[in-house]
Design a protein that fits this description.
By secondary structure, this protein is α/β, with parallel strands linked by helices. Helix content is 38%, strand content 19%. The strands form six sheets. Strands 7-6-5-3-4-8-9-19 form an eight-stranded mixed sheet, with helices on both faces. A hairpin with a 6-residue loop joins strand 24 and strand 25 (528-534). It is globular and about 70 Å long. One of its GO terms (biological process) is fatty acid elongation.
């Protein structure tokens, strides 16, 4: 079994694959069951493909430090292009083929790329109208298509490049760990994307450190659904493959079926993904008979009490970080009393849930946003360990993470190896003591070199001592666990001067079965408001239960009713007002200013397709506010 020690002296990320080809030669490395035909590559085959791809690039004149723009999505060929380009001596700038053409053009130009690798002809056609602005000497398609576009640049497809590579001797390129490996562009929610310069050393630090979070075994199955080009998924894939795991590609359409079919051992995802699984399970519960639903509800209520007592006894309760001997003793007595029903519930209910999710999960990793408390509780109850991490593109990305041994729910965990966290006053930059909330600063080997060609922007976020300004707010527990409370740019300041961090309140509101998505608004207003995407299935069911006979046979007609100012609409308003009040008041640390006094319904869900969510399913708040500004203004002026 490969140990992290074997990677200690490496200088370049691409050096890993020669080691894995020897250690795990016949284990499947990459498996794409949804391509036609499906693709399976063992570690030895993968390394051979990387070498051929790299040799093909070199045969076409690619030299050390050339920049390659890689615009493509998850597939074995993405990985081959990514690591093949680094093996050839180049660095790359990466983005999804689904991104806006203007954004892609900006990245292509800003990165000074001289070679473009694209998913297929369709992706190239998106950029075709900008072809006169290209400064390229080569374009490569990852498909086997032939290009008929009139572009004054040589275009080769994947097969043609690999044919060249097979007849060319690969030159070994020596890299230093300080050399640029990749440019990953920020989401650009507040302006044009900036290229975070990540060195080989930045990313290698992640590979050498993440084994403290997750300890996979060779052959463990990993289901991959997040964008491979994104910092979070990318570092996770590098690490898991370095340990001999099998990476299986899935997508939103096939995700739930693939869970059952491939029975993954580990998976990285974002809160919205775990929320979607939770919602499916809750829906299945609601479809049971009334008697069964009551039994399930009782089981979960008992088990919630059980895990709360277990946390206190193990000194892993955020609400009681230093329990007294008497408190722990009382928690232990309650544990014994609650255990039989919890164990019975596990046999009758929770095991079936685990089986429906594949039945083999050892670890779920959640990142890219805060994990709502009800999700943390739910996965602990059903005995699927979920670990939360924290970081940014600029930190490669992981800075903090919970572990199996120290899984303090409600936190983002302790700093990983070599990483320092400081909490400072946002205005004075004075270091704050443990427990005080302030701006999170990060320092460590994973912090980016800077933003490409943007010295002034770099100096704004990274000081001379190497501290990176995350822009996030949080506090540290006595054990150095990081608790994220919000983001400075997201903070809503009411007209009375109160600062409101929207994320924790939004997470609490999502516990309501009637709310699918929610975004708080209210900057400079007297009170908080919210844009709500309702769960139309649950709303229709509620209407039927209330005997509101208004002839609404479909969800589409229900959408129309929501906008009407009649008795039915008023009943819905009352329902949501009660739901919001209940969930917000049940949140730890509740203040009266947290109450949502006004709201309106948005019937188009926030999504990647309508540009209201990032590729990792985070809301683009400024985009949403701009799009719905008229509704927001009316909300506060009515």
């Amino acid at each position: 079994m490969t140990t992290i020690r074997e990677y200690r002296n490496l200088q370049a990320l691409s050096e890993i694959w020669a080691i894995t080809a020897t250690k795990f030669a016949d284990i499947i490395a990459l498996y794409d069951p949804h391509s036609k035909p499906e693709v399976k590559l063992t570690f030895s085959q993968l390394y051979e493909q990387l070498k051929i791809f790299a040799a093909g690039l070199q045969s076409l004149g690619i030299v050390e430090n050339d920049k390659i723009c890689l615009i493509a999505d998850n597939s074995p060929r993405w990985f081959i292009a990514d690591q093949g380009s680094m093996l050839a001596g180049a660095s790359n700038a990466v983005r999804s083929s689904q991104s806006d053409p203007n954004e892609l053009l900006h990245i292509l130009q800003d990165s000074d790329s001289s070679i473009l690798i694209v998913e297929d002809i369709k992706t190239l056609e998106k950029l075709y109208s900008f072809s006169d602005q290209f400064n390229l000497r080569l374009i490569i398609l990852l498909s086997n298509e032939k290009s008929n576009l009139e572009i004054p640049v040589k275009v080769l497809n994947f097969t043609e490049l690999m044919k060249l590579g097979k007849n060319f001797d690969l030159r070994s390129i020596v890299k230093k760990d300080t050399d640029l490996a990749t440019l990953i562009y920020t989401s650009g929610t507040t302006g044009k994307p900036k290229g975070a310069m990540l060195s080989h050393g930045n990313i290698l630090h992640q590979i050498r450190s993440l084994d403290t979070i997750i300890k996979p075994k060779p052959g463990d199955r990993i289901l991959s659904i997040l964008p491979s080009w994104h910092s979070y998924e990318r570092s996770a894939e590098y690490f898991l493959l370095s340990q001999g795991c099998t990476l299986i590609y899935t997508n939103i359409r096939n995700f739930k079926n693939d869970l059952k079919k491939f029975k993954p051992h580990h998976m990285v995802g974002v809160p919205r993904l775990w929320e979607s699984l939770y919602e499916v399970i809750q829906k299945q519960f609601r479809e049971q008979s009334v008697a069964k639903e009551k039994i399930i509800k009782y089981c979960f209520e008992n088990s919630l009490k059980f895990i709360v007592c277990r946390r206190i006894f193990n000194c892993l309760s955020l609400e009681n970080l230093k329990p007294s001997f008497q408190t722990r003793a009382m928690a232990f007595i309650k544990l014994i009393a609650l255990y039989p029903i919890h164990k019975l519930a596990d046999l009758l209910v929770y095991r079936q849930i685990r089986d429906n999710l594949g039945g083999s999960f050892k670890t779920l990793i959640s990142g890219g946003g805060s994990l709502a408390k009800h999700l943390d509780d739910f996965y602990e109850i059903i005995d699927i360990p979920i670990l939360v991490g924290y970081g940014l593109t600029e930190t490669s990305p992981v800075a903090n993470a919970r572990t199996h041994k120290h899984n303090l729910r409600g936190t983002a965990g302790q700093p990983i190896a070599g990483t320092e966290i400081n909490i400072v006053d946002p205005n004075t930059r004075q270091i704050l003591s443990k427990g005080k909330c302030g701006l999170i600063l990060i320092r460590g080997p994973q912090v980016m070199q800077g933003y490409y060609k943007k010295i002034e922007e770099t100096n704004k976020v990274k000081d001379s001592q190497g501290w990176f300004d995350s822009g996030d707010l949080g506090w540290l527990t006595p054990m150095n666990d990081l608790v994220i409370t919000g983001r400075i740019k997201d903070t809503i300041v009411l007209s009375n001067g109160e600062n409101i961090e929207p994320q924790p309140i939004e997470d609490a509101c999502l516990r309501s079965v009637y709310i699918d998505q929610i975004m708080l608004v209210g900057q400079d207003q007297k009170m908080l408001g919210a844009l709500i995407v309702p769960n139309l299935d649950m709303l229709k069911s509620w209407a039927e239960d209330q005997n509101l006979h208004l002839n609404i046979p479909s969800k589409d007609e229900l959408k129309n009713v929501l906008a009407d100012n009649d008795l039915y609409s008023q009943s819905i308003q009352d329902l949501y007002r009660k739901e919001l009040k209940k969930e917000v008041q049940n949140r730890p640390g509740y203040r009266s200013d947290d109450l949502i006094k006004t709201f309106d319904f948005i019937l188009e869900p926030f999504s990647i397709e309508n540009n209201m969510m990032t590729q990792t399913l985070k809301m683009k708040r400024l985009v949403i506010m701009k799009h719905y500004q008229v509704i927001i203004d009316k909300m506060f002026n009515s």
